[in-house]
């Protein structure tokens, strides 16, 4: 997929970041590709510094995601482009906070986030439709991530 703007190169820092190192440029399922590309980073961050470091990384990605998404949507004139997947990264990392290194929980964290991100139950759907701009792009995925985190917490409690 090409960037639909003459003013924005694939090498622009905002493009690299908001497409999560170009994973969002995948021609098929860019959101899923962005979520998959987030997983090794989330794992590494958890291994290096645990939940606190991952939580700090989520906040940093959220803030930088708003900046990079704003640059991207301003330059391209598109409101919520599919190739912008930094929102998936921030949202995907939320259930990883409790998944740890358990491979079953890690897979469930991925699947649950994708389900909530794709189906967008209320109030995620409300946020998706009513909050505009870069904040809107980011916010609904954060809520989907929180839903996935809650669902994973319930599953872990039932399984243990």
Overview features:
globular; 160 residues; mainly alpha; 0% strand; single chain
Descriptive overview:
It is a single chain. Helices cover about 75% and strands about 0% of the residues. The protein contains six helices and no strands. It has one domain. About 40% of the residues are buried. The mean pLDDT is about 95. By secondary structure, the chain is mainly α.
**H/E order of the elements?**
HHHHHH
* Total helical segments: 6
Kindly provide the radius of gyration, computed on alpha-carbon positions and rounded to a whole number of angstroms: 15 Å
Mean pLDDT: 95
Which structural category do the helix and sheet elements fall into?
mainly alpha
In terms of quaternary structure, what is this? Answer: single chain
Percent in strands: under 5%
Helix content: over 70%
Q: What count of domains describes the coordinates?
A: 1
Query: What can be said about the biggest beta sheet?
Result: none
Overall geometry: globular
Q: Would you report the number of β strands?
A: 0
Compute the separation of the termini in Å.
44 Å
Task: Enumerate the spans where pLDDT stays under 50 for 5 or more consecutive residues.
Answer: none
